[in-house]
Amino acid sequence: MMYSFLRVLARIIFFLINGKMSIRNKNKIPEGNYILVAPHRTWFDPLYFALASSPKKFAFMAKKELFKNPILRFILVHANVLSVDRENPGPSVIKEPVKVLTKSDLSLIIFPSGTRHSSELKGGASLIAKLANKPLVPAVYQGPLSLKALFSRKKTYVNFGDPIYIDRKVKLNDEAQKNIENQMQAAFDKLDKEINPNFKYVDISKKK
Protein backbone atom coordinates (compact mmCIF):
# COMPACT_ATOMS: atom_id res chain seq x y z
CA MET A 1 0.00 0.00 0.00
CA MET A 2 2.77 2.45 0.94
CA TYR A 3 4.67 1.67 -2.27
CA SER A 4 1.63 2.28 -4.47
CA PHE A 5 0.84 5.54 -2.66
CA LEU A 6 4.41 6.83 -2.98
CA ARG A 7 4.54 5.88 -6.65
CA VAL A 8 1.37 7.83 -7.40
CA LEU A 9 2.66 10.78 -5.36
CA ALA A 10 6.03 10.75 -7.17
CA ARG A 11 4.32 10.56 -10.55
CA ILE A 12 2.16 13.60 -9.78
CA ILE A 13 5.04 15.65 -8.36
CA PHE A 14 7.43 14.90 -11.23
CA PHE A 15 4.76 15.63 -13.82
CA LEU A 16 3.85 18.96 -12.24
CA ILE A 17 7.42 20.22 -11.95
CA ASN A 18 9.03 18.59 -14.99
CA GLY A 19 6.34 17.29 -17.34
CA LYS A 20 5.97 13.87 -18.92
CA MET A 21 9.08 11.72 -19.28
CA SER A 22 9.95 9.84 -22.46
CA ILE A 23 10.06 6.04 -22.01
CA ARG A 24 11.80 4.01 -24.69
CA ASN A 25 11.89 0.27 -25.42
CA LYS A 26 9.65 -0.73 -22.53
CA ASN A 27 8.65 -3.73 -24.64
CA LYS A 28 12.09 -5.22 -23.95
CA ILE A 29 11.21 -5.79 -20.30
CA PRO A 30 10.64 -9.55 -19.81
CA GLU A 31 7.71 -11.18 -18.04
CA GLY A 32 8.12 -11.99 -14.35
CA ASN A 33 10.71 -10.67 -11.95
CA TYR A 34 14.03 -9.20 -13.03
CA ILE A 35 16.88 -7.00 -11.82
CA LEU A 36 16.95 -3.53 -13.33
CA VAL A 37 20.58 -2.39 -13.50
CA ALA A 38 21.58 1.16 -14.35
CA PRO A 39 24.25 3.82 -13.82
CA HIS A 40 23.35 5.90 -10.75
CA ARG A 41 23.28 9.57 -11.83
CA THR A 42 21.04 11.40 -9.37
CA TRP A 43 19.36 10.64 -6.06
CA PHE A 44 15.92 10.53 -7.70
CA ASP A 45 16.66 8.30 -10.72
CA PRO A 46 15.42 5.19 -8.81
CA LEU A 47 12.02 6.88 -8.74
CA TYR A 48 12.08 7.51 -12.48
CA PHE A 49 13.05 3.89 -13.15
CA ALA A 50 10.22 2.66 -10.92
CA LEU A 51 7.73 4.96 -12.65
CA ALA A 52 8.90 4.00 -16.14
CA SER A 53 8.59 0.28 -15.31
CA SER A 54 5.09 0.57 -13.83
CA PRO A 55 2.94 -1.43 -13.10
CA LYS A 56 5.84 -3.61 -11.97
CA LYS A 57 6.79 -3.03 -8.33
CA PHE A 58 10.34 -3.04 -7.00
CA ALA A 59 12.48 -3.54 -3.96
CA PHE A 60 15.48 -1.25 -3.51
CA MET A 61 18.77 -1.46 -1.62
CA ALA A 62 19.97 1.47 0.51
CA LYS A 63 22.71 2.07 3.03
CA LYS A 64 21.75 1.20 6.62
CA GLU A 65 22.46 4.73 7.86
CA LEU A 66 19.20 5.90 6.29
CA PHE A 67 17.28 3.60 8.64
CA LYS A 68 18.45 5.34 11.82
CA ASN A 69 15.64 7.90 11.71
CA PRO A 70 12.48 6.08 12.92
CA ILE A 71 10.12 8.00 10.64
CA LEU A 72 12.29 7.49 7.58
CA ARG A 73 12.82 3.84 8.56
CA PHE A 74 9.05 3.29 8.65
CA ILE A 75 8.68 4.76 5.15
CA LEU A 76 11.64 2.83 3.74
CA VAL A 77 10.55 -0.52 5.16
CA HIS A 78 7.02 -0.11 3.78
CA ALA A 79 8.39 1.04 0.41
CA ASN A 80 10.32 -2.25 -0.02
CA VAL A 81 13.76 -0.81 0.76
CA LEU A 82 16.38 -3.29 2.02
CA SER A 83 19.08 -2.15 4.45
CA VAL A 84 22.69 -2.67 3.33
CA ASP A 85 25.79 -2.41 5.51
CA ARG A 86 28.36 -1.13 3.03
CA GLU A 87 31.19 -1.18 5.57
CA ASN A 88 30.65 -4.79 6.68
CA PRO A 89 28.54 -6.57 4.07
CA GLY A 90 27.36 -10.00 5.20
CA PRO A 91 25.49 -12.90 3.56
CA SER A 92 22.18 -11.02 3.92
CA VAL A 93 23.35 -8.55 1.24
CA ILE A 94 22.86 -11.38 -1.25
CA LYS A 95 20.29 -13.58 0.52
CA GLU A 96 17.65 -10.90 1.08
CA PRO A 97 17.39 -9.67 -2.53
CA VAL A 98 17.46 -13.27 -3.82
CA LYS A 99 14.57 -14.07 -1.48
CA VAL A 100 12.64 -11.02 -2.70
CA LEU A 101 13.09 -12.05 -6.34
CA THR A 102 12.12 -15.69 -5.81
CA LYS A 103 9.50 -15.49 -3.06
CA SER A 104 7.53 -12.36 -4.00
CA ASP A 105 6.20 -10.48 -7.01
CA LEU A 106 8.80 -7.74 -6.61
CA SER A 107 11.63 -7.05 -8.99
CA LEU A 108 14.82 -5.29 -7.88
CA ILE A 109 16.63 -2.09 -8.82
CA ILE A 110 20.41 -2.21 -8.38
CA PHE A 111 23.08 0.30 -9.32
CA PRO A 112 26.18 -1.85 -9.99
CA SER A 113 28.52 1.07 -9.33
CA GLY A 114 27.03 1.41 -5.84
CA THR A 115 27.07 5.21 -5.69
CA ARG A 116 26.53 8.22 -7.94
CA HIS A 117 30.22 9.08 -7.71
CA SER A 118 31.71 5.85 -9.05
CA SER A 119 31.84 4.38 -12.54
CA GLU A 120 33.35 1.07 -11.45
CA LEU A 121 30.89 -1.82 -11.79
CA LYS A 122 30.75 -4.38 -9.00
CA GLY A 123 29.68 -8.02 -8.91
CA GLY A 124 26.67 -8.04 -6.58
CA ALA A 125 24.02 -7.75 -9.28
CA SER A 126 25.49 -10.62 -11.29
CA LEU A 127 25.62 -12.95 -8.30
CA ILE A 128 22.07 -12.12 -7.25
CA ALA A 129 20.85 -12.66 -10.82
CA LYS A 130 22.55 -16.05 -11.00
CA LEU A 131 21.29 -17.30 -7.62
CA ALA A 132 17.74 -16.05 -8.24
CA ASN A 133 17.80 -17.20 -11.87
CA LYS A 134 16.46 -13.83 -13.01
CA PRO A 135 17.68 -11.65 -15.90
CA LEU A 136 19.46 -8.33 -15.67
CA VAL A 137 17.62 -5.57 -17.53
CA PRO A 138 19.91 -2.61 -18.37
CA ALA A 139 18.42 0.87 -18.33
CA VAL A 140 19.63 4.47 -18.36
CA TYR A 141 18.25 7.78 -17.16
CA GLN A 142 19.01 11.06 -18.89
CA GLY A 143 17.67 14.35 -17.63
CA PRO A 144 18.07 16.87 -14.79
CA LEU A 145 20.57 15.83 -12.14
CA SER A 146 19.40 18.05 -9.27
CA LEU A 147 16.06 18.96 -7.74
CA LYS A 148 16.56 22.56 -8.83
CA ALA A 149 17.21 21.45 -12.41
CA LEU A 150 13.95 19.51 -12.45
CA PHE A 151 12.09 22.81 -12.34
CA SER A 152 13.76 23.85 -15.60
CA ARG A 153 11.48 21.25 -17.26
CA LYS A 154 14.40 19.81 -19.16
CA LYS A 155 13.24 16.59 -20.85
CA THR A 156 13.74 13.34 -18.96
CA TYR A 157 14.31 9.97 -20.60
CA VAL A 158 14.41 6.34 -19.47
CA ASN A 159 15.60 3.80 -22.02
CA PHE A 160 15.50 0.01 -21.55
CA GLY A 161 17.83 -2.53 -23.17
CA ASP A 162 17.78 -6.22 -23.98
CA PRO A 163 17.82 -8.55 -20.95
CA ILE A 164 21.11 -10.17 -19.98
CA TYR A 165 20.70 -13.80 -18.93
CA ILE A 166 23.25 -15.56 -16.72
CA ASP A 167 23.52 -19.34 -16.94
CA ARG A 168 23.21 -20.81 -13.45
CA LYS A 169 25.85 -23.38 -14.41
CA VAL A 170 28.44 -20.69 -15.13
CA LYS A 171 31.01 -20.18 -12.40
CA LEU A 172 31.30 -16.48 -11.63
CA ASN A 173 35.08 -16.29 -11.60
CA ASP A 174 36.93 -13.07 -12.42
CA GLU A 175 36.76 -13.69 -16.16
CA ALA A 176 33.03 -14.45 -16.19
CA GLN A 177 32.29 -11.51 -13.93
CA LYS A 178 34.29 -9.15 -16.14
CA ASN A 179 32.40 -10.41 -19.19
CA ILE A 180 29.05 -9.59 -17.57
CA GLU A 181 30.30 -6.18 -16.48
CA ASN A 182 31.41 -5.50 -20.06
CA GLN A 183 27.95 -6.50 -21.32
CA MET A 184 26.28 -4.13 -18.86
CA GLN A 185 28.59 -1.23 -19.70
CA ALA A 186 28.15 -1.79 -23.44
CA ALA A 187 24.39 -1.79 -22.93
CA PHE A 188 24.51 1.46 -20.94
CA ASP A 189 26.63 3.12 -23.63
CA LYS A 190 24.28 1.94 -26.39
CA LEU A 191 21.16 3.12 -24.56
CA ASP A 192 22.68 6.53 -23.88
CA LYS A 193 23.61 6.98 -27.54
CA GLU A 194 20.10 5.98 -28.62
CA ILE A 195 18.76 8.94 -26.63
CA ASN A 196 21.55 11.37 -27.44
CA PRO A 197 24.62 10.43 -29.54
CA ASN A 198 26.58 13.23 -27.87
CA PHE A 199 25.62 12.40 -24.29
CA LYS A 200 28.32 12.55 -21.62
CA TYR A 201 27.49 12.19 -17.94
CA VAL A 202 29.02 14.82 -15.67
CA ASP A 203 28.91 14.28 -11.89
CA ILE A 204 27.59 17.64 -10.66
CA SER A 205 29.10 17.10 -7.20
CA LYS A 206 32.56 17.29 -8.76
CA LYS A 207 31.80 20.61 -10.47
CA LYS A 208 31.37 22.46 -7.18
Describe the structure.
It comes from Apilactobacillus xinyiensis. This is 1-acyl-sn-glycerol-3-phosphate acyltransferase. Keywords: Acyltransferase, Transferase. InterPro entries: Plipid/glycerol_acylTrfase. GO terms for molecular function: acyltransferase activity. This protein is of the alpha/beta class. It is built from 7 helices and 7 strands. It has helices spanning about 1-20, 45-50, 70-80, 90-105, 125-130, 145-150, 175-195, and strands at about 20-25, 35, 60-65, 80-85, 105-110, 135-140, 155-160. It has a 7-stranded mixed β-sheet with strand order 1-7-6-2-5-3-4, sandwiched between helices. β3 (about 60-65), α3 and β4 (about 80-85) form a beta-alpha-beta unit. The protein starts with a helix and ends in a 13-residue tail after the last helix. The relative contact order is 0.19.
Offer a few descriptive terms.
single chain, 208 residues, seven-stranded mixed β-sheet, globular, alpha/beta
Please sum up the structure shown.
With 208 residues, the chain is an alpha/beta fold. It has helices at 2-18, 45-52, 70-78, 92-103, 124-132, 147-150, 174-195; strands at 22-24, 35-37, 58-63, 81-84, 107-110, 136-142, 157-160.
Q: DSSP helix count?
A: 7
Q: Strands of the biggest beta sheet: in what spatial order?
A: 1-7-6-2-5-3-4
Q: Low-confidence segments, ≥5 residues, pLDDT <50?
A: none
**What fraction of residues sit in β-strands?**
5-15%
Radius of gyration from the CA trace?
17 Å
- Secondary-structure content class: alpha/beta
- Helix percentage range: 25-40%
Shape: globular
Distance between the termini: 39 Å
Largest sheet: 7 strands, mixed
Q: How many strand elements?
A: 7
Pfam family, one: Acyltransferase
GO molecular function, one term: acyltransferase activity
Keywords: Acyltransferase, Transferase
Protein name: 1-acyl-sn-glycerol-3-phosphate acyltransferase
